[in-house]
Amino acid sequence: MVQPRFVRPMQSSPSTDTGEPTSSNLYVANCGPAVGLSHDAIAAVFADFGEVKGVYAADESGVRVIVSFADPFSAKSALEALNGRPCPDLKGRSLHIRYSVLQSASETQVNDCVPVSLVDSELNIPGLFLIPEFVSVEEEQQLLAAVDARPWIVLAKRRVQHYGYEFCYGTRNVDTKKPLGELPSFVSPILERISLFPNLDNDPSSLDLDQLTVNEYPSGVGLSPHIDTHSAFEDCIFSLSLAGPCIMEFRRYSVSTWKASSADAEKLGDSSCIKKALYLPPRSMLLLSGEARYAWNHYIPHHKIDKVKEKVIRRSPRRVSFTIRKVRNHPCRCNYPQYCDSQQQR
């Protein structure tokens, strides 16, 4: 069954000249499966205001939905009663609601299903390399045991650990004046193996890796599109996947995105960006360098099931990634100024 598609919420409520609503669809933020609210539970709450035809994911975040009513007056009643207020029947979450509009058939012909490649060469992105089985099954278990024996920092949807320097999500950078010490000994074999990584022609000093972020992703949780801040880290970014697989999507926009999300880029009319996707199996090591590191957003869709070459792959209960980088102590002088915070701020 094909799911209906809806446009982004309108800035003002659609209405006739008499003030009557003309849309029976509501965009509802801050509720969804990612925060423990099923579509059935959401439908039951909104059904108090009229017949609900369906509840659909508004995007891949898991925290935004479309509630489609049988008539626009029911939608108006729900919006006026629930918008901006905590809802006791939805775990007390404050809902942020706007009208939304069903796309026409011609508008939904865009193919937003990105084919997934199994090998890095199929993407043809300079500087992107993937090595399967970078660690053995035994090494994988040892690494997982090492991080599980240490304290986790709990974020909204995932858990993290930082070593060397703490990555500050608010600024998307690190504070070089507050080092956390040397990287833990359990990553020493990984660092030694990285030095033998093929296709490396970078400045040796950029491979003196000193920052590690460990991420634990529960099933269904992904990562928003972003480019690692140019001024924060040097050229090579290594990411080791453990415990489970995922799809990583790569997006290149023509507009500057160094201080904006890719969603903001699409609002600027760049929704036709280049999109490519790669399957990251457990124990594989991904290297982003050069163009792949500086010019392409990387993104993990918020899915519990991925489709790879006509095969459906269910994500494991957890996926753990080791992202290893070298902190930059000078302005970035890369060849991609439109994406570079150092060069845009001059």
TrEMBL record:
Pfam families annotated for this entry? 2OG-FeII_Oxy_2 (PF13532)
Q: Which UniProt keywords apply?
A: RNA-binding
Q: Which domain of life is it from?
A: Eukaryota
Q: Which InterPro entries match?
A: AlkB-like, AlkB-like_sf, ALKBH4, Nucleotide-bd_a/b_plait_sf, Oxoglu/Fe-dep_dioxygenase_dom, RBD_domain_sf, RRM_dom
Q: Where is the RRM domain?
A: 24-102
Ranges where the record places region Disordered: 1-24
PROSITE patterns to which the protein is assigned, alphabetical:
FE2OG_OXY, RRM
Q: Where is the composition biased (Polar residues)?
A: 10-24
Write out the similarity annotation.
Belongs to the alkB family.
What's the protein name? Alkylated DNA repair protein alkB homolog 8-like
Gene designation:
LOC104777194
